């Protein structure tokens, strides 16, 4: 089954392909349609994912979409649904440093990555959604060059190194996106009858 991921982020596409089960193929939506400016202004990750589906549902192809972010307890959930849009014109090195500066004297470093993923089948007008989370802490400094986004400051629970150090082999097993899409693909298998 061919699915189209509503993203222009090659790193997201790569992560989804790492966990893609047999019988499925995923491409960026931009292989069949021009990029659209989608205003992700929902208060929830699911709401932003749904905006992505709605923007392309008229194409009549099976769609995948996700929205994800970093939620930091001591910062009241910041950056949360605004993770990508926080300081939108700055790179992630700068964004991470600002977060670390805000937390310099903070002992409560609890955080989590959250991903809300959706599957849309236009032939039966079916929408399936799941959420994946990975708990951890915010490191005291940036570390590692693997992954993308906030990976160099996030240490997943049970590990002593950041996702930026741990790399794809660990991320494909326990990242928020991996957890969400594994659940989603299981449900899509049930829905489509693929084994």
UniProtKB/TrEMBL annotation:
Keyword Hydrolase: yes
Keywords: Hydrolase, Magnesium, Metal-binding, Nucleotide metabolism, Nucleotide-binding
Source organism per UniProt: Mesotoga infera
Reaction equation(s) it catalyzes: XTP + H2O = XMP + diphosphate + H(+); dITP + H2O = dIMP + diphosphate + H(+)
CDD domains: HAM1
Record GO biological process: nucleotide metabolic process; purine nucleoside triphosphate catabolic process
Cofactor(s), by name: Mg(2+)
Enzyme class: hydrolase
Name the UniProt record assigns to this protein: dITP/XTP pyrophosphatase
UniProt keyword annotation of Nucleotide-binding present: yes
């Amino acid at each position: 089954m061919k699915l189209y991921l509503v993203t222009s982020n090659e790193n997201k596409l790569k992560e989804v392909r790492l966990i893609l089960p047999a019988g499925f193929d995923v491409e960026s939506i931009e292989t069949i349609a021009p990029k659209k400016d989608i205003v992700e202004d929902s208060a929830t990750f699911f709401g932003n994912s749904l905006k992505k589906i709605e923007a392309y549902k008229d194409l009549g192809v099976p769609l995948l979409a996700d929205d994800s972010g970093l939620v930091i307890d001591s910062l009241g959930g910041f950056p949360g649904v605004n993770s990508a849009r926080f300081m939108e014109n700055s790179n992630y090195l700068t964004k991470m440093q600002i977060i670390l500066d805000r937390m310099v004297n903070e002992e409560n470093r609890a955080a989590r990555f959250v991903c809300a993923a959706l599957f849309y089948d236009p032939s039966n007008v079916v929408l399936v959604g799941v959420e994946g989370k990975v708990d951890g802490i915010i490191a005291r400094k940036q570390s590692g060059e693997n992954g993308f986004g906030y990976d160099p400051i996030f240490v997943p629970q049970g590990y002593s190194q950041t996702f930026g150090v741990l790399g794809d082999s660990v991320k494909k097993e326990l990242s928020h996106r991996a957890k969400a899409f594994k659940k989603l693909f299981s449900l899509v298998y049930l829905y489509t009858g693929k084994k």
